């Protein structure tokens, strides 16, 4: 007599796993697309979506396997220095962010493309947000400022006179608790920005985005292939179900 062993657990339907994989690939694609769109944004940091296999109980208590986009990880490595010859452009290298005052409160950014507003305040060129010094106060330059020098620690001097120091700040958690508000602005969530120590500033240039356009393009092709593979599994499963239904109807 042949004994047939019955599996204790129901086999997961491949189309369910494939569908969850497709949803996860869409999240990866959105991230890669955003990276590519910001390849020329000064100070922008690329993101990488991490995929994980998760298990949860269905309504009937049976375990269901899914592929999900767990979280987006920020690549905090420095971007390359790009010379602009503009004295108000500064590149930030090392650990830290500039602090700016926005309608949404204090935010952080790596974009060192600055300008001077009508009040002679140092502001961001994109948005006109006040750039904070080490105490959180605005940096005010004298009217008609010439011979503007910004040293490696952010000290701003006009005609050899010290005006203030551009504040550079760090946060403990740069991944889960640093919310992206768009426009290259980051908002600390549940944590306080502290004065940074391991950094240096370089004037007359900007920190380029650390996005690799080539890598992101290759990644997008890979994501689309995986999405198509998952779709093929779904299509094959549907065809198999149709054949089973046809066989069953013929035997009725």
List its salient traits.
252 residues; disordered N terminus; 2 helices; five-stranded antiparallel sheet; 2 domains; three-stranded antiparallel sheet; alpha+beta; 18 strands
Description:
- With 252 residues, this protein is of the alpha+beta class.
- The chain folds into two domains: 103 residues; 127 residues, no CATH class.
- The protein contains two helices and 18 strands.
- Strands 5, 6, 9, 13 and 16 form a five-stranded antiparallel sheet that branches. The protein has a three-stranded antiparallel sheet with strand order 10-11-12, with no helix packed on it. Strands 1-2 form a two-stranded antiparallel sheet.
- Helix 1 packs antiparallel against helix 2.
- The radius of gyration is 26 Å and the shape is elongated.
- The relative contact order is 0.19.
- The N terminus is likely disordered.
Q: What is the domain total for the residues?
A: 2
Share of helix among residues?
A: 10-25%
What is the approximate shape?
A: elongated
| Order of helical and strand elements | HEEEEEEEEEEEEEEEEEEH
> Strand-residue fraction?
25-35%
* Major sheet: 5 strands, antiparallel
The protein's oligomeric status is single chain
Task: Describe this structure in a few short sentences.
The protein has helices at 14-37, 213-250; strands at residues 47-57, 63-74, 81-83, 90-94, 97-102, 105-109, 114-116, 122-124, 130-131, 148-150, 155-158, 161-165, 168-170, 178-182, 185-188, 194-195, 199-203, 205-207. The chain is α+β, with helices and mostly antiparallel strands and 252 residues long. 26% of the residues are buried.
